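lol ok so funny story. i was supposed to be doing the assay writeup but got distracted and ended up predicting the structure for this chain instead. priorities right. anyway since i did it might as well share w the group, maybe its usefull for someone
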Amino acid sequence: MKKIISVLLALGLSLSANAQEAKSVFVQMPDSLSPLLTPVNRADCIDFLESKMKAQVENRFGRTSEMTALSKDYIHMQLSPQTTWQMKLLAINDSTKVICVVSTACAPVCDSAVQFYTTDWKALSTRDYLTLPVMDDFFTAPDSTAAETFNRTRLSADMLLMKGDLSKSDATLTFTFTTPDYMEKETADKLKPFIRRPLSYVWQGNRYSPAY
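and the output, tada:
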């Protein structure tokens, strides 16, 4: 009897662990959050990639979507030539995780949205887990000789656009400033010396914190 109980407990723990792997959470995603991919699409992508095949499927619009990366806690989808979708499972404690999703559209300049969910896809408040960067976070302070040039060109950056990327290998989230991509080239070139490299955020167990 004790052996049977031990086996059942071990099986229960195994199923619980598997339920919080990225692939299981991805397949269970509600259709309302996956307008392009059917549940069969999502399951097929996983099967193909785990079989070392190209994980391409025909989506609901009759176009091709492809899963390009899969690990226990990370998925990357190329939904269309212009859109990508990433998810990362982030541990809060030994038994609780949250999902971070980064959706990016490039039309033509790339811009991303970041959302958080429970592992059964209930929406969480983004600000509880991340303070998104603002425009000035992407600039270094100019010295006195360059201040006039910076102030003049900075006025042309009137819309914050940024591309978010989740790391497959660790719990890092980076943001790349893409506003200059929609500006006139001459103005963007003048602004580039004042732009920081991509901003990195590190998961600290309950929220992302800046690493810059």
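The CA atoms of residues 102 and 186 lie 31 Å apart. The chain is about 25% helix and 30% strand.
back to the writeup now i swear
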